[in-house]
Amino acid sequence: MNGLKSLLNRRWHKFNEFIRNVNEIRNRNTVQYSMTCFFLTLLFPVFIVLMAELNQDKYPSKLVMFIVNKPLVMLFDIAVAAAIFAALCLLFRKVWRAVAVQSVVYFMLSITELFKYGTNGNHLIMTDMKLIRSVKSLTSFAYIKITPRLVTYTIIVIAYIAFTFWFNPKIKISLKKSVAPAIACAGAVLSMFFVTAVSTPVYSFFDVDTTAADNVFILNEKFEKQQFPRIFHADSQ
């Protein structure tokens, strides 16, 4: 028994030493590769929006056509993603955590939308969110099918999270000072979707379709025009 306890203690000590060494390297990376950290942080909202859209569109050519035809809507996507990302970064103060959380949420929404539409011809909308309490309830309205394309896109997203974790960009601001701007960013996002006085001019500027969607045909047409932000407001107008 003592021999087993001693072995476990040695293994635990080696594990802790390994973690310390990794964190020391990551902390050096923060300083040594400051420009890499800067661009990983700056480009993330663009990256996650493109990956979410690409996953839904399946083919890069279709995504390119959407960007060409609806550039302002794509900018709206990125602006929303950037505001959410800023709020998460300010709260976590470690960029990789914000990247991981937003990547998982965005990509899971994208996957669910992709397969819900493929399963029953209906798009994912805000009222579906109350159904997502478990994997079982999720598959009740979206048949999840693993494809090589989905695996490839998922690996790309995971790789971005891994790179951000390794290079370790940080937000150099105390939690006390970061709470207020984080709340402001979150409030800006919520107001764009739920406060008419704010959402109306914003949607108008970015050419986001706000016509009433009282049947599935109009709703599907709005989804084709608006892409990813449709999840948040396609059924709220």
Please tag this protein with its features.
mainly alpha, 77% helix
Mean pLDDT comes to: 79
Outline: globular
Uncertain stretches: 213-219, 233-237
Structural class computed from helices and strand pairing: mainly alpha
Strand content: under 5%
Roughly what percent helix?
over 70%
The biggest beta sheet reads: none
**What's the tally of helices?**
11
- Number of β-strand runs: 0
How far the N terminus sits from the C terminus, by CA atoms, comes to 67 Å
Estimated radius of gyration: 21 Å
SSE ordering = HHHHHHHHHHH
Explain the layout of strands and helices.
Layout: H1 2-32, H2 34-57, H3 60-69, H4 71-92, H5 95-120, H6 135-139, H7 148-167, H8 175-194, H9 196-205, H10 216-226, H11 230-233
Helix pairs in contact: 2-4, 2-5, 2-7, 3-4, 4-5, 4-8, 5-7, 8-9
What is this structure, in a nutshell?
With about 240 residues, this protein is mainly α. Helix content is about 75%, strand content about 0%. The radius of gyration is 21 Å and the shape is globular.
What does this structure look like?
The chain has 237 residues and is an all-alpha fold. The chain is built from 11 helices and no strands. The chain has helices at 2-32, 34-57, 60-69, 71-92, 95-120, 135-139, 148-167, 175-194, 196-205, 216-226, 230-233. α2 (34-57) crosses α4 and α2 packs antiparallel against α7 (148-167). The longest helix has 31 residues, at 2-32. Mean pLDDT is 79; it is low at 213-219 and 233-237.
